[in-house]
Design brief:
Length: 95
């Protein structure tokens, strides 16, 4: 992914709500399933690591992108953004 593509995705992520929360149990199979479903439906999702989570946002993002075959777009504080093009109905077209 180029820096221009990443910048475009970051700007799109500013307006979306956080839909993935990682709590005190860390990343469990249910978290991976819900993230995969959300990425298939939306392609771009924002997540948040709760204060009691044993992982940092960067660690959570790295693990999720590895498990899901997604791209990490941004990680600031406890929030992170991931992108994966939809297999069935791609909506976001990268330049």
């Amino acid at each position: 992914m180029t820096s221009k593509q990443r910048a475009m995705l970051r700007s799109m992520a500013n307006t979306i709500d956080t839909i993935l929360y990682i709590g005190k149990d860390g990343i469990v199979p249910g978290t991976i399933k819900s993230a995969s479903d959300a990425l298939e439906a939306r392609e771009l999702i924002k997540g948040c690591v709760q204060p009691e989570c044993p992982l940092t946002a960067r660690e959570a993002l790295d693990e999720l992108t590895r498990e899901l075959g997604a791209e990490g777009v941004q990680c600031i504080g406890r929030r992170f953004v991931m992108y994966r093009p939809s297999k069935e109905h791609p909506k976001i077209v990268l330049p």
